Amino acid sequence: MHGLWGAQFAGRAGIVAALALVGWSAPAFMTLAAPLAVLLALRWRRTPDRDAARAHLVDLLSNRTEAALALIEGPKAVPPARIHHQLDQTREPDETVIRIGARVAILKEQPGADAALARRACVWQASLTAPGGCARIGVVRVHPQLWPEDHITRAEAALLRAGGSQDESLVLDLDRPMPTVAGPKRKPKATFHRFARPIIRASDRGLHMVEPICGLPPNATAKDRQRLVLDQIDAGAAIVAGLGQPEVGVAIRLDPDLSRDPDLPRALSFALDTAELPASRLTLHVSGDTPMHAIEALERTGCRICVAAIDTKLIGPHDIWLPGELTLGIARDAGRHDLVSDIVARANIRGIEVLAVDLSDAADADILSGMGCDTLSGGAVASIMEERALVNLSTAPRRASHAG
């Protein structure tokens, strides 16, 4: 009823505006009624359900001491109602799922809820994907010193910082607000030891390496990024130790700027010793434009080096990895198919191992396997997994590759 009343006034306002264009002068009360009707119409176009849901979330956030909040915005191709239903069906007992317009809020209440919700967010990040992209997620820690609205604002800010690719679609803003004290402040580490991205052998689809999933704080500095790599080594060592299979290695993608840091090799050696992980079981993925002197410095630590290759010119003495944007759609793009086929063929001639990452299409994965690509990773072959699932994957019966 209210929506119809507002729409009627909006329609009359449009008539008044049209008559004004042709020179008709309206009485004063009608001149005032026109903008008033427009405002009323816009007000009733808002969804009261969304406002009520937000108010409900504010109430839930009040006086929470051990909780965390996630805001999720799904791909444009997926209706918000479907995402809300999926998350509500898979929620845990201490989680509250609320749809707020086009976004879904999840409040988790338990000791250590921030790390627990971040682990859950890694799973949602991998599962809430569609041809049009992946879900964007922002996770924040709830702290009693802040107003409930501040938590929502922080979660929205984290969500807006999330990018469109799967590697950038999750932003963890877990820094706890600290009182002003003398001395340096230390940020808590955001390491989640029990989750990793599996890297699968194309020959038998067995587990070859694990790539630990760790959180990077917003506005990360160079030291933060170095700390992240050291945390990933700790996490990877814990995972492969739990698997009990010495042939499974650990893979880490290095930030292009960090790979040039002259202090990184020394830090890597220290982290490997601390984690008791043999250097030969760690593979560092670097960008194709990394200087040779930086690669050689990293190689002297005993780690394996894998260099990104987007064309045949970048094939050198090291193993190579193919970015997801290069291999996406090779099943349908003949030119892209020929380029990737040429890269893989030349690498195979040189005896260089080839890894294809971020595969989202099973057809692309099958073609790469048939080309002779040695290892594969991404949602098309195995989504982000818990350590328990990795154990199941590593002990599963082997099956023949699609290449036959």
Automatic annotation (TrEMBL):
InterPro entries: EAL_dom, EAL_sf. The chain crosses the membrane at residues 15-42. Residues 240-381 form the EAL domain. Keywords: Membrane, Transmembrane, Transmembrane helix. Pfam families: EAL (PF00563). It comes from the Bacteria. Signal peptide: none annotated. Coiled coil: none annotated. The keyword Membrane applies. This is EAL domain-containing protein. It comes from Palleronia abyssalis.
